[in-house]
Amino acid sequence: MILHILSESEGNIVLSDSEPTWLWEYKIPESRSITASGAFGDLLLQETPGNQYSVWYNNYLIKRGDRLTIIRNEPVYKLQFILNNSFNYYDPKVGNIPMYERGYNLLYTPVVQEKISFKDKAYSNLEIHFSPDYLAAFTPHFAHLADWLRKTERQVPARFCKINQVATGDMMRCLYDLLNSPYTGELRKMHYDALVRELLIMVLHQTATHPLRKIIRFTTKEVETLYEIKNFLLTNIDKPLKLEQIAKNHDVTLRTLKRRFFTLFGVKLYNFVLDIRMKQASMLLLETDTAIEHIATLTGYQSFANFSTAFKKYYGHPPKYFRSR
């Protein structure tokens, strides 16, 4: 696939298959890489080929706001998930089209020419590019997919869902497993085959039975506020968090904050805080010798008893079990 990327500020971006050391932390084993660096920042696009599909993990580390145009010279059927920060796609007919974190859609374009506006942030998405035959194998089970594939025969751009959908927790776990597969060689390919198939089935089932029908609308300020709160939670996990005070500090009610947080990120605010606390606790238990009582403090719990109760409810076992495994 021939790929061109244009920067609004710098013009044509020179692409390379070499990988600068500062991008190694994003590297996916056994993938092919395309990289670029400039005043705008750094790009790392990685392709893992499969049987009639390929998985693309794309990282945009933007140092200076810019609009990039990505051009591919052949038709693409792709299932796209937004992983980190919201992407703003530009359409000359309707202007900016935001696609929020955890958003997904299945898209067809006869020739890809995406215009994406970036701010000074780190962005990532994951795309699975399918052959038409791969998708066609699922049409006996999903009539809405068969209808959509017939529309793509006209060779005009087509969106599977009029409104971008929000990934479920199971979908996000599947994406995580794709990016963190522990296997190598043929077994890794088999693992990818299973995950891609599972992910596509989940998407087709959700869009057939419980599609999102209402457009999510936020102002730029509301989106920035939600990301600011999310980053605050991630970087202050060792502190007791008072959600009512956080909401008050951002001039919203707690009820409004909870509703907007769930709408944008697809996870309840309380569950998000619990998830990051429990993941941090399990990491400290398994990878360090830190006393369990101190781990409770490091994950924002003032009471060891409350930490132990929450941990057992979350994982099904008390903290000492994790330490003794």
TrEMBL record:
Alphabetical list of Pfam families matching this protein: HTH_18
Keywords, in A-Z order: Transcription, Transcription regulation
UniProt cross-references to PROSITE patterns, sorted A to Z: HTH_ARAC_FAMILY_2
Domain of life from the UniProt record: Bacteria
Domain HTH araC/xylS-type: 227-325
Annotated GO MF terms: DNA-binding transcription factor activity; sequence-specific DNA binding
Name this protein carries in UniProt: AraC family transcriptional regulator
Source species of the chain: Paraflavitalea soli
